[in-house]
Design goal:
six-stranded parallel sheet; seven-stranded mixed sheet; alpha/beta; Rossmann fold; 18 strands; globular; single chain; Quinone Oxidoreductase, Chain A, domain 1; binds zinc ion; about 350 residues
């Protein structure tokens, strides 16, 4: 509630998604956001979406103790800014990420804005309007108003593409590298695209769903492995002369996927892990013996925004293709259902 900041005197309301419990997401009236701090911006959300991580609550794996707003992916148009905001102005189209960050503290300057000393989680974005704290540090304006067909790709940049990119950077993907991607959700698919952009020579996508395999190939995968677990590991070894991949992108976050990533990496290789871990238990001795380097965590998407926005505008990348369903925000319940039932990889919502 503390970030709702509504102008209660006017009792202005807008609509946004609220989760009440497992399988129960509703569109409800919520207080209209307004400027609270001088560094805030209010943006009218043009597109938002449902994240794979939203399903942890939807499926009851993460407990929902009380009703709370949902959504952390957004692009939109600035409606209002606080007195201190200098880098964005009303009318501009902006992309932000799931953590607001000052972009000036020592952690941000090191490139890890998702661990900003003043970070604020953006958790209310499946809505018509949102307040963005630290707008100068958080938001990046596009060079011009994007054509409608670019909006899905810009939205993807705000989370899944930024996260896939970070996975590839964390796994130290370099020109000529052999890369394996564990996970064929939106982040894994974007990881394939990132590996291609960073010059990987061989990209092995691990996927057993035909439409996802197809998109992975279009994004740059040279090989697809449908097997999982030990069999999946054996296939990756087979494809890499028995050695394993130089770089592995772990984009799921389960114990099985993490082990699969560890065992698919060549000795001394690198893993970028961006799947939010659930009950992951990394075997210490195995990790020690493997000489593998691990880097992961919530992606510092802000670091990559200017570059990724440019790549979208230049037509180099089209990560918006991970959205295979578009619904009005009013049908948010159906969006969660479709993703839960795997009828959709990722659903774009239009307020
Ligand atoms: Zn910071």
């Amino acid at each position: 509630m503390r970030r709702w900041s509504g102008d209660y005197e006017r009792e202005a309301v807008m609509r946004g998604a609220v989760i009440h419990g497992p399988g129960d997401v509703r569109i409800e009236e919520r207080p209209e956001p307004g400027i609270v701090e001088a560094g805030d911006a209010v943006i009218r959300v043009v597109a938002t979406c449902v994240c794979g991580s939203d399903l942890w609550s939807y499926r009851g794996i993460d407990q929902v103790r009380r009703p709370r707003p949902m959504g952390h992916e957004y692009v939109g148009v600035v409606e209002e800014v606080g007195k201190q905001v200098a880098s964005v102005r009303p009318g501009q189209f902006v992309v932000g990420s799931f953590f607001a960050s000052d972009n000036t503290c020592p952690v941000c300057r090191a490139g890890y804005q998702s661990a900003c000393q003043n970070r604020v989680h953006m958790g209310e974005c499946q809505a018509e309007r949102i307040r963005v704290p630290m707008a100068d540090g958080t938001l990046v304006a596009t060079p011009e108003q994007p054509a409608a067909e670019l909006v899905p790709s810009l939205l993807a940049v705000s989370d899944v593409m930024g996260t896939g990119w970070y996975a590839a950077v964390a796994a130290e993907v370099r020109p000529g590298a052999t890369v394996a991607v564990v996970g064929d959700g939106a982040v894994g698919l974007c990881g394939v695209l990132a590996a291609r952009e960073l010059g990987a020579e061989r990209i092995i996508a691990m996927s057993r769903h035909e439409p996802r395999q197809r998109l992975a190939r279009e994004f740059g995968a040279t090989d697809v492995v449908a097997e999982r677990g030990d069999e999946g590991v054996a296939r990756v070894k087979e494809l890499t002369g028995g050695v394993g991949a130089d770089c592995v992108l772990e984009c799921v976050g389960t114990d099985e996927s993490m082990r699969q990533a560890l065992r698919s990496t060549r000795p001394g290789g690198n893993i970028g892990f961006v799947g939010l871990p659930h009950k992951v238990d990394i075997p210490g001795k195995e990790l020690f013996a493997s000489l593998i380097a691990l880097r992961g965590g919530p992606a510092p998407v802000r670091r990559f925004l200017p570059d990724l926005i440019t790549r979208v505008f230049d037509g180099r990348i089209d990560p918006g293709r991970v959205f295979d369903m578009t619904l009005p925000l009013a049908e948010v319940a159906e969006a969660y259902r479709a993703m839960d039932e795997r009828r959709a990889v990722k659903v774009l919502l239009q307020p």
